[in-house]
Write a structure and sequence with these properties.
The chain has helices spanning 2-15, 167-184, and strands at 20-23, 36-37, 45-52, 56-62, 66-68, 70-75, 88-92, 98-102, 110-114, 119-127, 135-137, 140-147, 152-159. It has 191 residues and is an alpha+beta fold. The strands form 3 sheets. It has a 6-stranded mixed beta sheet with strand order 1-3-13-6-10-9.
């Protein structure tokens, strides 16, 4: 009975959290040839990843038109509250031609407290407004390229804006959140 009540409680509380957290810990190389696949592009997700010398690629393939949202954030830590790696991203068509580019170096990043995860973030550029989609894309294949000057550092790519959580997602969150917290809110992450 306790397990059932815990699942119900977590379902209610995590429905308030805006993006399903996902940690890319080696499932995809995140290259042009092996991009991270974003399934169901309208469903909100926060993909935690680390640039290690090369830009990252995400692939969206949809058989119907969809609302596109993408944004970049960075963990804000107490150890380095005002210094952080800035990231840029571009949305590309199926031929890797740039549709739009968001330069994180010239963007005025701002701090934001995510109430349900109890974490601070630096919020960078977004395709949309206030964490919501403002544009519908035609069906097809698209890519998101994430990069910075050195192609190094931890970032979070937010994609989609429809909140949707089921017991399986919540169960995975219980496993992945401690890993994310340890890796992204660590004093060793200061640039």
């Amino acid at each position: 009975m306790f397990k059932i009540l815990l699942i119900i409680f977590l379902s209610i509380s995590f429905n308030l959290f805006s993006h399903q957290p996902k940690l890319n810990d080696g499932d995809f190389e995140m290259t042009k040839e092996d991009p991270y696949i974003i399934k169901k592009p309208e469903i909100s997700k926060a993909i935690y990843a680390t640039l290690s010398g090369d830009e990252h690629f995400y692939k969206i393939k949809s058989k119907k038109s969809f609302k596109m949202y993408a944004g970049i954030t960075v963990a804000k830590t107490d150890e380095c509250p005002n210094t952080f790696d800035k990231f840029s991203f571009a949305i590309l068509n199926s031929d890797f031609e740039e549709i739009v580019n968001f330069n994180g170096e010239t963007f005025e990043w701002w701090s934001w407290y995510e109430e349900y995860g109890k974490k601070w973030y630096w919020v960078g550029p977004e395709f949309g407004s206030e964490f919501q989609s403002t544009t519908t894309f035609d069906k097809g294949t698209y890519y998101i390229k994430v990069y910075n000057n050195n192609n190094l550092g931890n970032y979070v790519l937010a994609a989609g804006d429809i909140e949707k959580f089921n017991p399986l997602v919540i169960g995975k969150m219980l496993i992945v959140l401690p890993k994310i917290n340890k890796k992204f809110w660590n004093k060793n992450n200061c640039p």
